[in-house]
Automatic annotation (TrEMBL):
This is VOC family protein. The lineage of its organism: Bacteria, Bacillati, Actinomycetota, Actinomycetes, Streptosporangiales. It holds the Pfam family Glyoxalase_6. Transmembrane segments: none annotated. Residues 1-89 form the VOC domain.
Length: 89
């Protein structure tokens, strides 16, 4: 989704580099119990196409595609329930 392949350091820790930004993903033993402490908005050229890709990877949509004067966005959940949005300007 971020346009660059992930680097898998070990089975529980991976990251994606995007210019000066690195986003790391680490498995933890306890389940998610509350709201995300961080929320990612991922800018994409086509929200519907990106959502279809995310669905193939196990994500699920939360509600319908939203469109306003600033663009469109789709709220998604990853397979563990963490929220993120796919957005276009």
């Amino acid at each position: 989704m971020l346009g660059t392949p992930p680097v898998h350091r070990d089975p529980s820790w991976s990251y994606v580099d995007g210019g000066p930004l690195r986003i790391a993903f680490q498995r933890v033993p306890e389940p998610k119990t509350g709201k995300n402490r961080a929320h990612l908005d991922i800018r994409v050229a086509d929200v519907a196409a990106a959502a279809a890709t995310a669905l193939k990877w196990g994500a699920r949509e939360q509600g319908p595609l939203q469109t306003d004067a600033q663009g469109s966005f789709q709220v998604m959940h990853d397979p563990e329930g963490n929220e993120f949005c796919l957005v276009s300007d």
